[in-house]
Design goal:
The protein is α/β, with parallel strands linked by helices and 389 residues long. Helices cover 41% and strands 17% of the residues. The strands form two sheets. The protein has a seven-stranded mixed sheet, with helices on both faces. Strands 2-3-1-4 form a four-stranded antiparallel sheet.
Length: 389
């Protein structure tokens, strides 16, 4: 489904799970982990199998067997696994440990770029990106605080822990179908990684401000902004994909966020009327998504230097265009869910070097090997009085 139909792993998993509503939480979690690990370790597993990737059933059984061998260190039993030369598989996997790109199961091109940009840190970051992500949620302040949500989830049989630097975050102690909970259905929570949750507070908002979320997508950060502003501001959520904005509206209704207006961006004319008028602008720019590889391992298989170049060009255009919407004395946050400095610090450096009247107030970087969550970069920029928009 992922390699032959081009679907994202998350979409493929959701499609299968929707056909099996009777599965227990344990079975759903096992399927999800196995599916993600097949995608995550695709290159290494085929190396262990000793052949080029294929979507033929008999070879997929072979690769599944290699995965189970890695999980349990014991060859799996069953009709589909008969005839697999397990000793050869073990020897191939042992040899694969000598080559980082094969050992960590990533494309050679990604390995070269990661090493070039992160140097000796690359190995540690890469290992973290290949680990299983936690299930984290954000308490919707419009209805409940994190402590209250923790109690609600406990009543539904779900334990959770707080995150010291993310006041609205809870990390579930076990994987579950959180969308089945009454807490989700009634709008008390949103699924959101704690590093992603750091972006909206970083914009330094308060009730009553005029705010634009320029690349809103389905609205995770938009809803967080609304909660931080206590539903009293004016938030414009913009995106160039119309169906994402429809999803945002649906989520906003469930969350009880009523200060949000959506704008479909079909051309620069769509937002020119907002020029120089907004207190805060968030540019959560499209990026490689490498900071979220634990949750979206399929991303790495479509990565290329050409696609990265196109994204960096788009990021520069977006930060330049949307900076014009910030009033004098206002602030803009540029953010990406990437681990690469070329999509973060270097882009902000380029912007500051090309625009007068802007200063860097603060920047933060989150790494999966440090905080244990997604990789993220964010920079808050101040437009000084008289600064160019």
């Amino acid at each position: 489904m992922v390699f032959d139909e081009g679907k994202m792993a998350s979409s493929a998993i959701s499609e299968v799970l929707s056909r099996h509503p009777d599965w227990s939480d344990r079975k759903r979690a096992l399927f999800s982990n196995m599916f993600h690990d097949l995608i995550r370790w695709w290159r290494l597993l085929w190396t262990g199998a000793g052949r080029k990737p294929s979507t033929e059933d008999r070879w997929l059984w072979h690769v599944l067997g290699v995965l189970l061998l890695r999980w349990e260190d014991v060859p799996p039993r069953g009709h589909g696994f008969r005839g697999i030369p397990w000793e050869r598989v073990r020897k191939r996997l042992e040899r694969a440990r000598r080559v980082r790109a094969v050992r960590e199961s990533i494309p050679d091109e990604l390995d070269l770029i990661g090493k070039r940009e992160l140097g000796n840190e690359w190995d540690r970051v890469l290992r973290a990106l290949n680990s299983h992500p936690p299930l984290a949620v954000r308490a919707n302040r419009l209805k409940v605080d994190a402590g209250g949500l923790k109690d609600m989830l406990r009543e539904e049989g779900l334990g959770s822990t707080r995150v010291r630097w993310a006041p609205d975050a809870l990390v579930l102690k076990r994987k579950t179908n959180i969308f089945r909970t009454s807490a989700f259905r009634e709008g008390y929570l949103e699924v959101q990684d704690p590093a992603s949750q750091a972006v909206a507070p970083f914009l330094d908002v308060r009730p009553g401000l005029r705010v634009i979320d320029a690349c809103a997508g389905q609205g995770g950060k938009t809803l967080h902004l609304s909660a931080l502003m206590e539903n009293t501001g004016r938030i414009i959520a913009m995106d160039d994909v119309a169906w994402k904005l429809e999803m945002l509206k649906k989520r906003a209704r469930r969350a009880g966020a009523f200060d949000i207006r959506t704008v479909h961006v079909s051309s620069p004319r769509s937002y020119r009327r907002f020029r120089g008028a907004y207190d805060r602008v968030l540019v959560d720019a499209p990026c490689s998504g490498l900071g979220s590889l634990r949750r979206n391992p399929d991303i790495k298989w479509s990565f290329s230097s050409e696609s990265l170049d196109r994204l960096r060009e788009l990021q520069r255009r977006l930060i330049s265009d949307y900076s014009g919407l910030v009033r004098e004395g206002g602030k803009m946050v540029y953010a990406t869910c990437s681990i690469l400095p070329s999509e973060g610090e270097e882009q902000v450096g380029w912007f500051l070097g090309s625009r007068e009247g802007w200063v860097l107030e603060e920047e933060r970087r989150f790494r999966p090997d440090v905080e244990g969550f997604d990789g993220f970069y964010m920079a808050r920029l101040l437009r000084k009085d008289g600064g160019a928009g």
